[in-house]
Prior knowledge:
The protein is α+β, with helices and mostly antiparallel strands. The chain folds into two domains: 7-66, Ubiquitin Ligase Nedd4, Chain: W (Single Sheet), CATH 2.20.70.30; 70-105. It is built from four helices and four strands. It has helices spanning 7-16, 70-80, 84-94, 97-105, and strands at 20-24, 28-32, 36-50, 53-66. Strands 1, 2, 3 and 4 form a four-stranded antiparallel beta sheet that branches. α2 (70-80) packs across α3 (84-94), α2 packs parallel to α4 (97-105) and α3 (84-94) crosses α4 (97-105). It is rod-shaped.
Amino acid sequence: MLPNIDPKQMEKIAKKMGMQMESVPATEVIIKTEEKDIVIKNPQVSKIKMKGQETFQISGDILEKEGVKEEDIELIVQKTGVPKEKAEELLKETGDIALAIKKAQK
């Protein structure tokens, strides 16, 4: 949130402005996109209600993980006959479908 402001003070200020704030006791927040997952460790999450809208404010340690597409895993399984778990592992390791297929065929 804002630096050097006590969360209780922030709640009082928000109430005066017609906002309702509450802290959400989260241990991890994951935002999934088509290309990657954004993982927020040690998050501080606030839920804010104002004029019928709910929003969340999240801060913490950010880690981005590249996603592995299901269709890429299936392609490796079809071409090589390896189990799905092995195909996913090879794809994560190499980051490339062709290299994963070559490694699986060895």
